[in-house]
Design a protein that fits this description.
This protein has 195 residues and is an alpha+beta fold. The protein contains three helices and eight strands; from the N terminus they run βββαββββααβ. It has helices at 71-80, 158-171, 178-183; strands at 43-45, 50-52, 55-63, 94-101, 107-115, 119-127, 143-144, 189-190. Strands 1, 2, 3, 4, 5, 6, 7 and 8 form an eight-stranded mixed sheet that branches. Strand 5 and strand 6 form a beta hairpin. It is globular, with a radius of gyration of 18 Å.
């Protein structure tokens, strides 16, 4: 989800925020000056699809490390994936997942599944991020998140491509073609700067 988190003061009066600290720079209107930060796109890789829990899963990985996401984090994330998937409803069983290795040592798994013919179902899990309810800083200890957040700026780039691919191969095609959809992924590179 996000890796730019600052810890708020614990001396403020009143009830605590939703699940922890506010984004870097403090909440809007707090009077706090935003922390200077330089935004950089991250690397996006596209591992081959997998099948789990009766669904075909397209995969995207986001990290700053050219070596990719550590195998133990990848294994833990994909072991959690079945808990993020919806029940079958007659829609071709396809999902795209974004596994993101945060810069603060955390990890995030976003699962976007096609349901009701043309709707995206979303669930996420996080590891190593107490703000999202993780019990520790272990990036392999994933827990399902309950916040209504659909992803951070580095996790969102596949959504437009996947929307267009779903329309192209399943909705606008004379013969819906799930295989063609599964073969049509956003190319690897970076999370942005795509002209």
């Amino acid at each position: 989800m996000t890796s730019a988190i600052s810890v708020p003061s614990t001396t403020s009066a009143g009830p605590a925020g939703p699940a922890g600290p506010a984004p870097a720079g403090g909440p809007v209107g707090s009077g706090a000056s935003p922390a200077p930060a330089v935004f950089r796109e991250k690397l996006l890789t596209v591992p081959p699809p997998i099948e789990t829990a009766g669904r075909r899963i397209k995969r995207y990985h986001v990290t700053t490390d050219p070596a990719g996401i550590e195998p133990e984090i990848e294994a833990a994330a994909y072991a959690m994936l079945p808990r993020l998937l919806p029940e079958p409803d007659g829609t071709p069983p396809a999902t795209f997942a974004v596994l993101h290795r945060g810069g603060d040592g955390s990890a995030y798994l976003c699962a976007y599944s096609w349901v009701w013919d043309n709707v995206l179902h979303f669930r996420a899990a996080a590891a190593g991020q107490p703000v999202l309810g993780c019990p520790d800083r272990d990036p392999t200890n994933f827990v399902v998140t309950e916040l209504p957040w659909i992803g951070c700026v580095w996790e969102l780039p596949p959504i437009l491509h996947e929307r267009d691919a779903w329309v192209r191969h399943l909705l606008a095609s004379d013969v819906p073609d799930l295989d063609a959809y599964m073969a049509d992924s956003l190319p690897g590179g970076t999370t942005g700067d795509r002209a």
